[in-house]
Design a protein that fits this description.
By secondary structure, this protein is mainly alpha-helical. Helices cover 67% and strands 3% of the residues. It has a two-stranded antiparallel sheet with strand order 1-2. The protein binds protoporphyrin IX containing FE (HEM) (2 copies). One protoporphyrin IX containing FE binds next to helix 1, helix 3 and helix 4.
Length: 182
């Protein structure tokens, strides 16, 4: 039960779902933590933490998105059409949002002519010269991606709560145990 079927999630998806969920929450926390810092100096230091955390979780997030689109997607429980559509839209928004963030984040650093320093352990040099236009485009994409994730995540969690509390249909259980069907 490593990969998905049309009825159930496999362990690969389940492991990546929860690892990526923790990573996304860590990225939102470290990103806003830096943005809300009191002065420029603290802001720079906290942004270095966000960037180093991003580099550390990059592969998990990339794998999450790629593995998802390469596998069959278990069909959802029977629901009114608009809800089925919303659930599917929210899932794609989360995955595309992650992809936008892990591309635009490093691009914002590199196009600023800076290297990505990973907690002082190692450093990834910028493959390009400073490029103001690209830098601004990357920052804009990073802002759009962040709000896409936040909006979709709120809907995602409301959806999960509905399935757990109101419908009690096993949707949560199948994201916890591989091979479980609805
Ligand atoms: C932390 C609380 C979270 C809970 C309780 C939760 C719960 C769930 C559950 C129960 C499903 C299964 C839905 C189904 O059976 O169709 C699911 C699917 C999904 N979740 Fe979450 N989730 C959480 C966080 C996240 C986060 C942070 C992301 C990404 C930003 C995310 C992305 C997805 C995606 C894309 C799916 C669709 C299934 C797939 O394509 O692999 N979830 N989630
Ligand atoms: C799911 C992944 C990610 C999320 C949710 C996320 C979220 C955020 C947030 C909330 C901010 C603060 C917003 C602000 O300054 O107004 C931010 C800024 C930033 N992030 Fe990320 N980030 C992610 C991935 C990454 C990665 C992988 C890198 C680089 C390795 C990165 C680099 C940056 C940089 C350089 C900034 C400051 C410039 C800007 O606002 O665009 N981010 N991110």
């Amino acid at each position: 039960m490593l990969t998905n079927t049309r009825q159930a999630y496999g362990w690969l998806t389940i492991a990546l779902h929860w690892l990526a969920a923790a990573a996304v929450i860590a990225m939102l926390y470290t990103g806003f933590n830096a943005d809300w810092a009191a002065d420029r100096e603290t802001q720079r230091a906290l942004m270095r933490v966000h960037i180093a955390t991003g580099a550390s979780v990059f592969l998990v997030l990339m794998l999450r998105v790629v593995a998802d689109y390469l596998q069959p997607r278990p069909v959802g429980p029977e629901q009114p059409k608009p809800l089925m559509l919303l659930a599917s839209l929210v899932h794609h928004a989360l995955l595309i949002g992650i992809l936008v963030q892990i591309v635009s984040g490093p691009l914002a650093v590199f196009s600023g002519g800076r290297a990505i320093d990973v907690f002082g352990a190692f450093s990834i040099p910028s493959p390009m010269a400073r490029n103001e236009g690209l830098h601004e485009a990357a920052e804009l994409a990073h802002a759009i991606g962040r709000w896409t994730i936040i909006g979709a995540l709120v809907l995602h969690l409301l959806g999960v709560a509905k399935h757990v509390i109101v419908d009690r249909d096993g949707v949560m259980r199948r994201m916890l145990i591989a091979g479980k069907t609805l």
